[in-house]
Amino acid sequence: MKNDPTKFKELVHESIKRQIAAIDKLYERGMYFFDYGNAFLLTAKHAGAPIGGDDGDQSIRFKYPSYVQDIMGDIFSLGFGPF
Fold first, then answer.
1. What is the separation, in whole angstroms, between the first and last Cα of the chain?
2. Segments forming the whole domain that contains residue 68
3. Is residue 66 a part of any domain in this protein?
4. Which residues touch 16 (CB under 8 Å, ≥6 apart)?
5. Which of 71, 68, 70, 62 is nearest to 44 (CA)?
6. Is there a domain that residue 82 lies in?
7. Nearest alpha carbon to residue 50 among 59, 38, 41
8. Domain-embedded: residue 51
């Protein structure tokens, strides 16, 4: 990492793409997946993984939902929630 940060970044991106490939495979078999809110899907997009987010507009829509989108749903817009 210290000696060759470019190579380190490349290896991290390859690892993230492998993780997305594994998630895709498990998802196809029925596994439920969501982004917990740590920007994993955004990082995967930046790494070049086929994750969506290419709508051409200002929003970013990935092929998997975030925790807030899928689990919390409309709860915040109804005035509930911890914030």
1. 38
2. 5-72
3. yes
4. 40, 43, 44, 47, 49
5. 62
6. no
7. 41
8. yes
The pair of structure tokens assigned to 25 is 């495979």
Alpha-carbon radius of gyration of the chain: 16
- Decide if 52 contacts 62 (C-beta within 8 A): yes
**Residue 24 within any structural domain of the chain:** yes
Q: Is the CB of residue 7 less than 8 Å from the CB of residue 13?
A: no
Q: How many domains does the chain have?
A: 1
The 10s digit of each residue's pLDDT in 4-20 is 999 999 999 999 999 99
More confident position, 59 or 40: 40
* Span 54-81, average pLDDT: 74
> Alpha-carbon distance 17 to 43, whole Å?
10
Residue among 27, 8, 20 at smallest CA distance from 44 = 20
Q: What is the value of pTM for the model shown? A: 0.76
- Which residue reads 């000696």 in tokens? 3
Apex 55 CA angle, 65 and 48, nearest 5? 75
